[in-house]
Amino acid sequence: MKKILVTGGTGYIGSHTAIDLISNGFEVIILDNLSRSEATAIDRIQDITGVRPKFYEIDLCNKKETFAFFEKEKNIDGIIHFAAYKYVDESVKNPILYFRNNNDSLLNLLECLDTFSIKNFVFSSSCSVYGNINQLPVNEDTPLNKAESPYARTKQMGEMMIEDVSINSAAHFISLRYFNPVGAHESAKIGESPSVIPNNLVPRITGTASGKFEKLSVFGTEFPTRDGSCIRDYIHVMDLAEAHTAALKLLLEGKSSKKHDIINIGSGNGVSVLEAIHAFEKVSNQKLNVVYAPPREGDVVAIYSDCTKSKEVLNWKAKRSIEEMMLSAWNWELANK
Hints:
CATH topology of the domain at 3-186 and 233-267 and 305-314: Rossmann fold
Strand content: 15-25%
Number of strands: 13
CATH superfamily of the domain at 3-186 and 233-267 and 305-314: NAD(P)-binding Rossmann-like Domain
């Protein structure tokens, strides 16, 4: 059984990926500092899979703690690195927090790879690295524009760090640039549960529908899009989890053709904010109190993926529709209320 470290594994995407890894026969170790998540995620993972992953509460920015972990946990076959702060607006307000947390943690992990003979590394990157672009859909060869937020810049910098390290490292790397993960596990036993007040769309939608929030703000209604709202490529979190498992398997089987490969992970469909809201209202039979607000600093206008490479290299494509995403998110909200 291959031993896989999932950093940020009590968070939203990390916990769902841990479930998929366990379902595929991997031994999972979770590492998280619990600054943006809760240890109860371990209980939920066990409830769904019947397996309780080993858990360490460690801050990867602490180099001493990080190295001590790898001294204790020998023979790790691969790492999937999720641990990072992710809120665009927060990063605009506090860029130093984001640079220190997101990049210092990655740097410490990269230093551990050759020291502890770890050969396989999957990095949680983001479509935000592309910035505002003129031609859609984007593919992996689309030039990166100016980052629209410090969060996006940390992901650009992370990819660059990996690229430079990969040249002389014995490890192989895949950076997954994924788009907008939403939804929850079909069991409704785990989902997105941020420890801070969420500003991303779907938790605000479900929270408004359940009464947590009085209103749902749509930021910007005069963008050059078909209905004036931002366009994103939404992907079900379990589709995304399966993509990470596929990337890890490719590395473990020695089938990655590059020392550091970059792959977009999305549905390939652009969905506007207003269309996402309408999809939720349809499947939930809930009418939302929508209000219109000025655009937020740091948001790009429109972005969605060309998924050709993920199909060819990973033999992976998104399977779940926007309606399935919204319904699973609503079922999680109701179960977690």
